[in-house]
Structure formats: structure tokens, C-alpha cells
Amino acid sequence: MLRNFTVQEQMFYEASPSILMLEDRAIFNRFATDIRPIQPNIIILDCLQKCYGGDENSKEEMLEWILHVEELQNEHDCSVVVIHHANRNILSTSAMDRSRGTTLLPGWADTVIHMVRQPTGVQLQFGKVRQSGRELHNLNIDFHDYIWTVRV
Hints:
- The chain is of the alpha+beta class.
- It has two domains: 109 residues, no CATH class; 43 residues, no CATH class.
- The protein contains four helices and six strands, in the order H-E-H-E-H-H-E-E-E-E.
- It is globular.
- The relative contact order is 0.11.
């Protein structure tokens, strides 16, 4: 299921050959078994649409997916980053309003970051930060040749 590409020491990159529906218990169990020997510090699921086959507007269906992701998070004591596309409501400043699908997903997340194209480049907008209790300010960035730099 997983293909290991050695890029640098202690790094593991996974590329799924197809859609990985983690809400399905059998598929989830195979994925969990495959990554267990790796003991990841971080799991990046890019993007939600590729690892979820249910109705993203259904709280009940999304809850099953979230519970499985939490199992991975708890087993490995790791961070999970979920890349998800925003809806088309670009005028809204609310993390809940700009996230696509049920509000269960942004409600579950500790941090919601929106990546917004600006005339001068890309801006990271922090819509929700639960853990630190502090406000994070928008961050202007450039991305060239796989290198991120902060724009002042």
C-alpha cells in the first residue's frame, strides 16, 4: 500500500496509489498497520477529498473519519495535518464559514489556517488557534523552488 521514498534521514514520504478512505474500518486498519513500524511524529493527509469517501456535509459520516484519525494520533502521540479545500465564500473571515463541509471538522481541529492568494503573494490567515490561547497574526509568504520565505 505505501511506497517509501528516502529523501533524508528520519523522513518518510508516502504516496497512496489511490483514494484512501480512512472512514472505512478495513482500509483504516491496513493503513494503521502499514505506518505502525514508522512511528510517525506527524501525519499529513493531503487532501481530505483523497482520504475520505463519505459525505463531507454529514456530521455522522465525518465523525467516523475523525475518530479513526484520532486513533492514529493517540497511538503515535503525533500531530495530524489535514489539508482541506475551502468553500467559495472568500468574503467571510470566519474559519467556520470558509471551511467546506460540516462544521464538525473545523470544530475538531486545534488550528485552522487558510492559505489565501493575495496580489503580492500568498498569505497564511490563522482562523482558529485552540491550544496556545493566543492570537496569531497573518503571515505573508513567498514560495519558490520548494522554499518558503516570509515577506515583510
